[in-house]
Amino acid sequence: MTTATVGIMLPRDLPAHQIVPFAQKAEQLGFDELWVVEDCFFRGGFAQAAVALASTQRIRVGIGILPAPVRNAAFTALEANTLAEIYPDRLILGIGHGMPVWMRQVGDKPASILTMLDEQLTALRTLLAGDRLEVDGRYVTIDGAQLESPATIAPPVLAGVRGPKSLAVSGRSADGTILAEPVTPEYLTAALGHIDARGPHSVVAYNVAAVDDDPAVARELARPALEWIGEPDWAPHIDPLPFAAEFAALRERSATRADFVAALPDEWVDALALTGTPDRVRNRIAELHASGATSVVFMPAGTDPLSRLDSLARAL
C-alpha cells in the first residue's frame, strides 16, 4: 500500500441509493481510498466493494472488515481474487475475528479467536499469492486448493483487531493492521509495539472526522459519534492517553451515553476525533502519519455523510 494516504469511510447505514454517488464524489474530491464496512446487519462487504470499484476509476477500495468466523478461507480468497483480477491494485482486504456479540448471535463464536484468525490470515495470503494450499488446522482445513487464475497483483490482507494478543497475530500473519477509532498518536505507538512486524506492514487508522471553519461546530458534529468509546472493548485505545483515569471516571458516573458525550471536555473530543479547521485536521493527519499510520481514514460525522464530503476534503 502507498504510504501517507487519506481515505474516507462509506458509512454502514448510508442509504443504498447514495452508495454510488458517495464513491464517485470521494474519488472526484481526491481521497486515496474508500473503505466499506461489513457490520451486522447492514450490508455485505464484497457487494459494496464491487459496486464501488465498478463505479469509480482510480480510488482504492478497502473492505473493513470481514468477520473471519463466518467465512471459509478458500471462498473468501475466491471473491477477493475476482475483484483483484478485474480491478488490479485497487482492492484492500480487511478481515478480523468479528464482534463477539454478533458472532454469538449467529452461532459462530470460535473457542479460540486468535488461532482462528491466525489460520485464516495465513490461508488467505497463501491462496491470494497463487500458491497451492494444504492445511489441516483447528479452524481451516483445505486439501490442495489453488486459484486457477490468481490476480497479477494480490490484494493485501489486513487484520482489523485490537488488544495486544490480536495485534501480535496481525504483525506476524497479515500484510497490515486496521485500527478502529479512536486512533491517537499514543494509541498508535502502543499498537505498533504489540504488532512488532518484522517486515513491511501497513497501518490503517480510522477516526471520526468533522471539518468546519468554526472548531466548535466541527466538535459538536463529532461528539455524538464518540458515545461508544467508553465501552470496555475500547480500553486499549484509552489507556495510553494522559487523561485515561479521568476518562474512565467520567464514563463510570455518566448515567447514559448521551450524558457521557455531553460531558466530554472539548480537548478530549479534539484528541479522540479529527475535528476543527482544515489546517488543524491536516496537521493532525500529518501527526498520525508521522506516528506510524500509513493511511488515515475519515469516518464522516453528522447525519448527512454525502453532504459532508466537501468539507472533509478541505483537509486533504
Describe the structure.
Helices cover 43% and strands 19% of the residues. The model has no long low-confidence stretch (mean pLDDT 95). By secondary structure, it is an alpha/beta fold. Strand 1, helix 1 and strand 2 form a beta-alpha-beta unit. It has a single domain, classed as TIM Barrel, CATH 3.20.20.30.
Please give a quick description of this structure.
By secondary structure, this protein is an alpha/beta fold. Helices cover 43% and strands 19% of the residues. Strands 1-2-3-4-7-8-9-11 form an eight-stranded parallel beta barrel, surrounded by eight helices.
- The CATH class name reads Alpha Beta
Number of strands: 11
* Portion in helices: 40-55%
What is the residue-averaged pLDDT? 95
**Would you give the CATH topology?**
TIM Barrel
What does the main sheet amount to? Answer: 8 strands, parallel, barrel
Question: What fraction of residues sit in β-strands?
Answer: 15-25%
N- to C-terminal separation? 18 Å
- The gross shape turns out to be globular
Count structural domains.
Answer: 1
Name of the CATH architecture? Alpha-Beta Barrel
Name the strands of the widest sheet in spatial order: 1-2-3-4-7-8-9-11
SS class = alpha/beta
**For the CA atoms, what is the radius of gyration?**
19 Å
H/E element order: EHEHEHEHHEEEHEHEHHHHHEHEH
CATH superfamily heading: Luciferase-like domain
Low-confidence stretches: none
